[in-house]
Amino acid sequence: MKTKYMTTSEVAQEIGVTRSTVAAYSSRGQMPEPDVVYGRTPLWKTVTISRWTKNRKGA
Hints:
It is a single chain. The chain has 3 helices and 3 strands. It has one domain. The chain is α+β, with helices and mostly antiparallel strands. The chain has a 3-stranded antiparallel beta sheet with strand order 1-3-2. The chain is about 45% helix and about 15% strand. The protein starts with a strand and ends with a helix. It has helices spanning about 10-15, 20-25, 45-55, and strands at about 5, 35-40, 40-45. Helix 1 (about 10-15) crosses helix 2 (about 20-25). A hairpin with a 2-residue loop joins strand 2 (about 35-40) and strand 3.
């Protein structure tokens, strides 16, 4: 099975915020570290974001 990864834009769409909000969450340590960084692009496994959204405050 191939692992699926999400970009900042895809994470934003998934959780219903803007891309800049996801970047702010990331810079403030309010979300998981990226699973992979490809060049300068952070990527998260879909399962990482799924677990995070289940456990985040205010979700």
